[in-house]
Design goal:
Number of helices of chain B: 7
Shape of chain A: globular
Number of helices of chain A: 3
Distance between the termini of chain A: 17 Å
Shape of chain B: globular
Strand order of the largest sheet of chain A: 1-2-3-4-5-8-7-6
Radius of gyration of chain B: 21 Å
Largest interface: A-B, 46 and 62 residues
Oligomer: heterodimer
Largest sheet of chain A: 8 strands, antiparallel
Helix content of chain B: 10-25%
Order of helices and strands of chain A: HEEEEEHHEEE
Strand content of chain A: 25-35%
C-alpha cells in the first residue's frame, strides 16, 4: 500500500546498516535484545517478509530495527544502546498483532484505552497517555498506523517525535 | 418513524411530479422528476416498519427505480433522480456522554422481503465503508442470510479494526434503506453475532474490543467513506490478518473475500444517487450547542438538493483516499475529512494540552490549506477552544474541539459544522470527475 507520508529529515539521513542476523523478529516493548559488536540486533526473516534491518540516524541516538512482513505491514523497534526496546511503531494495510508488539504492556494499554473511551477521540484514533506508557493508534480509511513508547526509557537525546 | 412519514408524504407528492426532498432538501429538477415519477413511484413500495415489527402487506421491491437517463440531463454524466434522498442526522447527548457523535437511523430488511427493522443511534462515519450493527440491536425475527467464505461450508466473518478498537462479527446481507433509496442484498457486519465463533485471538490482539453499545458508543456504524468496500482488493487477493475470516467447525481463520462480498458502502449499491453524499450541519457557537440536526443527502448532482455548485473539489488519492493539508509551514500528506472523528486532530505545539486535547486559554483562530492531488486548494480558517471548558459546558455539539496528532491532519466532525461537505465515491462519475474526492 502506498503511503503519502513524506520522509522526515531525520529519516532521510538515516543510514541503513543492512545487516540481517538471527533471533526473534519482533522483540516486545520493554524487552532487551542482543546487540552485537557491530551494533546490530538479532533478528530472523520469515518467508515473504523482508529481513529486519537496523537503522541509525546519523546525528542522533535514534536507532531502530525495521521489518516488513509478507502483508506489507512495517514494524519498527527502537532500541537503546543497551538493547532495550523502548518504543515500537507500525504502518500498513492491516493492523499488526499489537499484543505481540506491546508484550506485557498490552493489557495495561487496553485497560487505559477502555477507561478513556467516554472522552476519547472517535473511531479513528486513540491515545493512552500515562507517565510510564504512551500508545497512539490511528486507522484512517485503509491505513493502519500507530506507535507506543515507554517515556522513562527514552535514551538521552531521543524525543517522542523521533518515533515514526 | 420519521423516515416512514417522510417517505409516504413524498410518495403522495410524487404523483403530481412536484417533489421535495425529506428533511429540508430542496426541490427537484422538474424535467427529470417527470420522467422518473412516471416510471416508478419508488418510495411507495419501499418496505419500512417500526422497530422489531415486519412491515405489513407490501411485497418488497428489492431494486427500485429506473435511473433517469441522459435524455433529461444531456450535459451531466450523472443519472438524474427523484427518489427521496435525504436522511436526518443529529449530534446530541448519548448514553456514554461522548461528544460530537453524528448519528442517524437506518432501516434494514431481510433481502427481498418486507421483514424490516429500523435501528436508531447509528454513527455516521465518512472515514470507513459499510454498515455494522450490533446483533443485540436486531430483532430475532430479522434473520439475515450469511455470506459464504471461500472454503466450502464456511461462513464469512470480519474483524474490523478502527483506531479506537475492533468489531468482530458475521458478514450477512440485508436490504439497506436510507430515505427512499435501497442498497439491495448488501454485505453488512453483524457485530457480536452469537451464531459465529467467539473472537479469534488473532483479532483480539489488535486492541480494544468494541462489541457492546457502551464500547461502541452507538448501536452501529454507517460507513459512507470514499470507497465502495471496507478493505478492497487487498483482502480479495491476500488473507490479511485482522480483516476477513472463514468460520467452520467452531473456528475462524483469516481468509480472502471478493470485493463484491466485502462489507460495502451502501451508497454505492443504490440504483440512483449512488456517487457520493453531502453532509450538512449548522454552525454552532464557540461554546458549542446542546444538540444540532442536519441532513445527509445521497448523490452528487443527481438532484437539485445535492448540486456541487461553487464547492471546491479536492481529488484524493485513489488508493489511500488522502488529501494534503498545509499548516504552519508543514504539509501533512495524510489528511482526510472524517465525520467519525469527534475533534480536529493535528500537530500543534504552541497551545497547552489537557491530555489528548488542546486547552488554549482563549479561543485560537488558525488557518490551513487543503490540497487535492491535482493541486487544487481550499483555504480553511478554523477555531479551537479549551477542551476542558467545552466538556464541562454540557454541550454535545462542539465546533471548537481539537486535539493533538502526530504527523497527520484529521478534519473531524467540527469541520462539518456550518458547511456542506461532499464525499465522492471511487470510480463514480460526477460532473467534477470521478471520485474519490472531497468538496466543500
Amino acid at each position: 500500500m502506498p503511503h503519502l507520508k513524506s520522509l522526515s529529515p531525520l529519516r532521510a539521513i538515516a543510514a541503513a546498516l543492512m545487516i540481517a542476523a538471527s533471533g526473534p523478529t519482533h522483540a516486545q516493548l520493554g524487552t532487551t535484545v542482543a546487540i552485537d559488536a557491530s551494533g546490530t540486533s538479532s533478528s530472523s526473516s520469515t518467508p515473504g517478509a523482508t529481513a529486519a534491518v537496523m537503522h541509525q540516524a546519523s546525528n542522533s541516538a535514534v536507532r531502530w530495527q525495521e521489518s516488513t512482513d509478507a502483508n506489507q505491514i512495517r514494524v519498527r523497534q527502537y532500541v537503546s544502546s543497551s538493547g532495550q526496546v523502548y518504543a515500537v511503531s507500525w504502518d500498513g494495510p492491516a493492523m499488526p498483532d499489537v499484543a505481540v508488539l506491546l508484550g506485557t504492556w498490552f493489557d495495561r494499554y487496553r485497560q487505559d484505552a477502555s477507561a478513556a473511551l467516554p472522552n476519547a477521540s472517535g473511531l479513528h484514533s486513540s491515545r493512552v497517555s500515562s507517565s510510564d506508557l504512551m500508545v497512539e493508534t490511528a486507522v484512517r480509511l485503509r491505513d493502519f498506523n500507530g506507535r507506543a513508547w515507554l517515556p522513562s526509557a527514552l535514551p538521552a537525546g531521543v524525543t517522542a517525535a523521533d518515533i515514526e | 418513524m420519521r423516515n416512514q412519514t417522510c417517505v409516504l408524504i413524498t410518495a403522495i407528492i410524487a404523483v403530481s411530479a412536484t417533489m421535495f426532498g425529506c428533511g429540508g432538501g430542496g426541490s427537484n429538477d422538474s424535467t427529470s422528476a417527470a420522467a422518473t415519477g412516471a416510471s416508478s413511484p419508488t418510495a411507495a413500495s419501499a418496505p419500512l416498519a417500526s422497530s422489531g415489527a415486519p412491515a405489513a402487506g407490501t411485497p418488497a421491491a428489492a431494486v427500485p427505480a429506473q435511473p433517469a437517463t441522459s435524455a433529461s440531463a444531456p450535459a451531466s454524466t450523472v443519472a438524474q433522480s427523484t427518489t427521496p434522498n435525504v436522511v436526518p442526522i443529529t449530534v446530541a447527548q448519548i448514553a456514554t456522554g461522548t461528544r460530537n457523535m453524528l448519528q442517524a437511523s437506518v432501516t434494514i430488511c431481510v433481502p427481498g422481503t418486507s421483514t424490516c427493522q429500523t435501528i436508531d443511534n447509528i454513527q455516521v462515519d465518512t472515514g470507513s465503508q459499510g454498515l455494522r450493527i450490533l446483533a443485540s440491536a436486531l430483532a430475532p425475527t430479522l434473520v439475515l442470510p450469511s455470506v459464504a467464505a471461500a472454503s466450502t461450508g464456511s461462513t464469512a466473518a470480519s474483524c474490523t479494526v478502527f483506531g479506537s478498537g475492533y468489531t468482530w462479527g458475521s458478514v450477512r446481507t440485508a436490504d439497506v434503506h436510507l430515505a427512499g433509496l435501497v442498497a439491495a442484498a448488501t454485505s453488512i457486519q453483524v457485530i457480536s453475532d452469537p451464531a459465529i465463533p467467539a473472537v479469534p485471538t488473532d483479532c483480539s490482539n489488535s486492541g480494544l474490543p468494541m462489541l457492546t453499545a457502551t464500547a461502541l458508543r452507538s448501536n452501529g456504524i454507517l460507513g459512507v467513506g470514499p470507497f465502495r468496500a471496507d478493505c478492497g482488493s487487498g483482502c480479495a487477493v491476500t488473507a490479511l490478518p485482522r480483516w476477513y475470516y472463514g468460520c467452520s467447525s467452531g473456528a475462524c481463520v483469516a481468509a480472502t473475500l471478493p470485493v463484491a462480498q466485502q462489507v460495502t458502502n451502501p451508497i454505492s449499491r443504490f440504483a440512483t444517487d449512488n456517487n457520493g453524499l453531502v453532509i450538512e450541519l449548522p454552525a454552532v457557537a464557540a461554546a458549542g450547542a446542546a444538540s444540532v440536526t442536519g441532513t445527509m443527502t445521497f448523490g452528487i448532482d443527481s438532484q437539485s438538493n445535492n448540486l456541487l455548485g461553487s464547492a471546491q473539489v479536492l481529488p484524493s488519492n485513489s488508493m489511500t483516499g488522502f488529501v494534503a493539508t498545509t499548516f504552519q509551514g508543514q504539509t501533512y500528506g495524510t489528511s482526510f475529512i472524517d465525520s467519525g472523528s469527534n475533534g480536529l486532530f493535528f500537530p500543534l505545539s504552541s497551545v497547552p494540552r489537557c491530555g489528548f486535547w488542546f486547552c488554549p486559554t482563549t479561543v485560537q483562530s488558525l488557518d490551513a490549506t487543503v490540497a487535492g492531488i491535482n493541486g487544487a486548494t481550499s483555504n480553511v480558517t478554523f477555531t479551537i477552544g479549551n477542551a476542558t471548558s467545552l466538556f464541562a459546558s454540557g454541550n454535545y455539539a462542539l465546533g471548537n474541539l481539537a486535539g493533538s496528532a502526530s504527523n497527520y491532519f484529521d478534519w473531524g466532525l467540527p469541520f462539518f459544522f456550518g458547511r456542506r461537505v461532499f464525499t465522492a465515491i471511487e470510480a463514480s462519475a460526477t460532473p467534477a470527475g470521478n471520485g474519490p474526492y472531497y468538496a466543500f
